[in-house]
Amino acid sequence: MYKPAITGTGVFTPENSISNAELVVAFNAYADKFNLENAAQIDAGKIEAKSHSSEEFIFKASGINSRYVIDKEGILNPDIMYPQMRQRSDDEPSLMAEMALDAAQKALRAAGKTAADVDAVICAASNLERAYPAVAIEIQELLGIKGFAFDMNVACSSATFGLQLAADMIKSGSISSALVVNPEICSAHLEWRDRDCHFIFGDVATATLIERSENANGPYFEIKSTRCATEFSNNIRNNNGFLRRSRPDGTADRRDMQFMQNGRKVFKEVLPMVSAHIGSHMEAEDIEATDLKRLWLHQANKSMNDFIGKKVLGRTPEADEQPNILQDYANTSSAGSIIAFSKYSNDLTDGDYGLICSFGAGYSVGSVIVQRRG
Questions:
Q1: Which 3 state secondary structure label does DSSP give 26?
Q2: Is residue 184 part of a domain?
Q3: Percent of the chain surpassing pLDDT 90
Q4: For residue 353, is the peptide bond before it cis, meaning its omega torsion is within 30 degrees of 0?
Q5: Mean pLDDT of the chain
Q6: How much is the CA Rg of the chain, to the nearest whole Å?
Q7: Which of 123, 156, 186, 357 is catalytic?
Q8: Distance (Å, rounded) from C-alpha 198 to C-alpha 78?
Q9: Range of the domain at 302
Q10: Number of domains in the chain
Q11: Residue 226 domain-assigned (yes or no)
Q12: Cα separation of 359 and 274, whole Å?
């Protein structure tokens, strides 16, 4: 049986970013416009007035300061309030494939490998730009990779589930390497006109190269063990909300077609599930809390990560033990834990253990125990 290893990672970060201050100005302008246009119905008690947002509210609720986005102008326009992305022809690379290509090329360079060294591509993301042909196959074509490719979706846990699939195929000997790419255009499924969630998401793409450890060109992270679990819940849901468009008559899309969540229930139900999942995974592998040098958690909410880190380690984690990128990137769904891993892993030394974990809609949770080698 072969030993799978992470040998390279890459992150594509959009050029545009939106600060909390910018977002609040746009949202409050929209709220004022809505309240003015619907004053009669508000006065009659038929609909509720829109409340203002604030920088303090956003940071306290999430720990987010800013987020990167593909399109800034549409989101910050009070008359639009969603990203506007031009329609590409079928002969052009899709936006998602273009983002993934950048991240994948960085991962290959980091590992000292080329497309010729890759046997498979897994595009694992919370939303896919189209049903078919698979975005993964398009990425495979753009990179010039032989072999096979496929898409998969487990919402915010897509990356860790993809890592498990790749690791299992490498262990079995069916492939020698795979690229797991996570292009996330989360701004396109978010309802930017909803005060309770308008600040949550950002856009990014990540890529991870997994190989047989014997083929690594330098230091790597051996994947010691993976574990995934799911449990159905309606508390985080997206019925159809990707690359949102207005109706031809200018009326708003249905609210239930975008990202929705019952935040309090999610917090109450997901945290025990994730903490127990990580704990049982570590116990099964004889890994003690004192053995872990780093936790790379899903970047959804700072309070959630602080809670999980404290449960896993039995104490409040030091900043370098549980790095957050949430303040700069916001929630980037499946890519969040991979961004954290990519940016905060090179300082670990031979023999150090770490754990990558994601969790989200489904409910779903995936954990990957890794050990630094070399």
A1: helix
A2: no
A3: 83
A4: no
A5: 93
A6: 21
A7: 156
A8: 13
A9: 222-373
A10: 1
A11: yes
A12: 7
Q: Are the C-beta atoms of residues 240 and 28 closer than 8 Å to each other?
A: no
Provide the greatest CA pair distance for the chain: 71
357 catalytic per annotation: no
Torsion, Cα 190 194 195 198, to 10 degrees, reads 10
Angle at 227 between CA 297 and CA 325, to 5 degrees: 10
Give the Cβ contact number of residue 2 at 10 Å. Answer: 18
CA distances in angstroms from 191 to 59, 198, 212, listed in the order given: 18, 6, 42
Residue 177: half-sphere exposure toward Cβ, Cα within 13 Å: 23
The beta strands (E) that lie in the chain are given as 4-12, 16-19, 66-69, 120-124, 148-152, 177-185, 203-212, 220-230, 236-237, 260-261, 292-297, 353-360, 364-373
Look at residue 200 and tell me if it is in a domain: no
Paired tokens of 220 = 């790597």
Residue 330 within any structural domain of the chain: yes
Distance CA 179, CA 187 (A): 24
Phi, psi (degrees; rounded to nearest 5) at 124: -115, 110
CB atoms within 10 A of CB 335: 36
Give the tokens for residue 62: 């999430």
Q: Which CATH number belongs to the domain containing residue 272 in this structure? A: 3.40.47.10
51-103 confidence digits (pLDDT tens): 999 999 999 999 999 999 999 999 999 999 989 888 889 999 999 999 999 99
pTM of the model: 0.93
pLDDT tens, 298-312?
A: 998 899 999 999 999
